[in-house]
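Handout for the seminar on molecular recognition.
Each group receives one record of this type.
Step one: identify the two inputs.
Step two: read the structure output and locate the region that could contact WT7.
Step three: write two sentences on what you found, then compare them with the reference statements printed after the record.
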Amino acid sequence: MSSIETVLTETRVFPPQEAFKQAATISGLEQYTALCQQAEQDYPGFWAALAQKELDWHKPFTAVLDEANAPFYRWFHDGELNASYNCLDRHLSNRGDKAALIFEADDGTVTTVSYRQLHQRVCRFANALKKQGVGKGDRVIIYLPMSVEAIVAMQACARIGAIHSVVFGGFSSKSLHERITDVGAKLVITSDGQMRGGRAMPLKPAVDEALSFGGCEAVTSVIVYKRTGGDVTWNARDLWWHDLESAESDYCEPTWVNAEHPLFILYTSGSTGKPKGVQHSTGGYLLGAVMSMKWVFDHKATDIFWCTADVGWITGHSYVAYGPLALGSTQVVFEGVPTYPDAGRFWQMIEKHKVSVFYTAPTAIRSLIKLGGDLPNNYDLSSLRLLGTVGEPINPEAWMWYHKTVGRERCPIVDTWWQTETGAHMIAPLPGAINAKPGSCTRPLPGIMMDIVNEDGSHIDGTGGGLLVVKKPWPSMIRTIWNDPERFKKSYFPEELKGVYLAGDSAHRDDDGYFWIMGRIDDVLNVSGHRLGTMEIESALVAHSLVAEAAVVGKPHEIKGESIVAYVVLKGARPEGDEAKQVVAQLRDWVGKEIGPIAKPDEIRFGDNLPKTRSGKIMRRLLRSLAKGEEITSDISTLDNPAILEQLKQAVS
Ligand code: WT7
């Protein structure tokens, strides 16, 4: 896929349809521009008014943006609120019986949970957590499949001021262990297993193993939700979820917390081997989730909203666990995979639940095109009114298919650019105001001050590309990296850039002022919308007893966006033939265990050495070219050992 090249020549424009525009929260370009101007003129005032109007405060704030200790910004910091109260209690009087969650299991079984029922379950579970000694500020690890329980667990933590850290169920016991110890968790919530594509897969063994690695002494109990009914090894610290929940009462007083109190920590990959614990606030974060639901998803009380992301990622935090609930929306939550029982599952579910707003990743769209590009035609998709994408650039071909075959040329598409660190959408075409262009995330949300700068932080017009930055702090921004404030400063506010937030992406701007994301500037890969650090994978590889050295790069991939290519130098001789195949299988398996199956290299190439400069620096630029199969025509005069390039041309197959 040559997405960068194709987007650079993309000229099609799709204006909002008149009827959509008329009914939209932000209707027309003038209204968008007016909001942007308001934010320009009185930045704190703009956000303060929204925070007052959209959130329920226990104690109203008087302070808005505190920049005294920049870049450790604070928003609304003398106000008090509770996220769970905002997501549940405030709906009980007028929409208690409205469906909050329509949960569809892997096998198609549907469970509907009303706001009142969800409130009850969250209260009961919050009481149970308290009884386990969990209180305000304590960290709780959640390692659960997509389920009502995962949402209950997150909301219950929020209710008592505990800080959750959700770990995606696809991460290995090693990754889980790293997060448990870094965050200093007191309790882990998991399930016996998970159902995916008709098969039960165990989950709890990873928790048992993680805790056996040591350094987790702070974990006093493990709560286990029974999902598959599979056998589990039972330890003294284990407790069944259902036993705890049934013993509790239906109400738990929310713990009021400061707006800056951490709501959660979510780990994401950076350019070193160690994942970063991105810490989010309560007030500012929730405001970001709410405003983007309203502006970008044009939220309506009658919507059936479906975001297909797992709660293990930021998308599942902002647009499953918090955003839709804060607005009293009805949302679909799906346990399974898009290809089971066949590649029509998403379309079938849209028809069945009359989904009106559908939000998924380009990688899912591309794989569903490949597996059954005509399948949407077999379903009634007339309930849809808005489509969204997230996680990576969408290539215009996939955009057009989504527009025609899923949206039937009626539905606007919002291509949302944002990050774990930004908490909420930052750049996206507001569907009733901004003309979409396939492949561009278009323009920033009101109150979000995006820019393109050069290496020294100066503004450039961006037509030739540059660094994507945010010029002013915004409410839902990352507050710090847990346990590592220095890394926070260095990663996001490097001195050369003079105080602007560095996103880590390069972008260019077209003549209409639209942003086009070109890719990461750091050693971070985007594989099927999952963010992975090349260093993380390299560290995993060199931890294997056979491996002396490893370098990992990304290579464009038709479905996944990027695939993982690993160059490996073994301690012994360079393997060939069957032996090479065997080592490849071993190493892939190993990375799966060290990090998780999503990090397994797609290709492994062996060399006697890696291409290095005379000073010993690995020449990644060359490795990227080799991965793509390009002839090396560039200057390799600084290369110490040109002969090994030949060896590294071939992947083991
Ligand atoms: C990185 C952030 C935000 C939720 C999912 C990913 C890439 C994200 C887009 C988009 C082009 C995108 C960027 C960004 N990205 N959305 N619409 N167009 N690129 O969150 O794991 O924190 O990754 O994903 O490179 O920096 P994440």
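Reference statements: DSSP finds 20 helices and 30 strands in the chain. The two ends are 21 Å apart (CA to CA).
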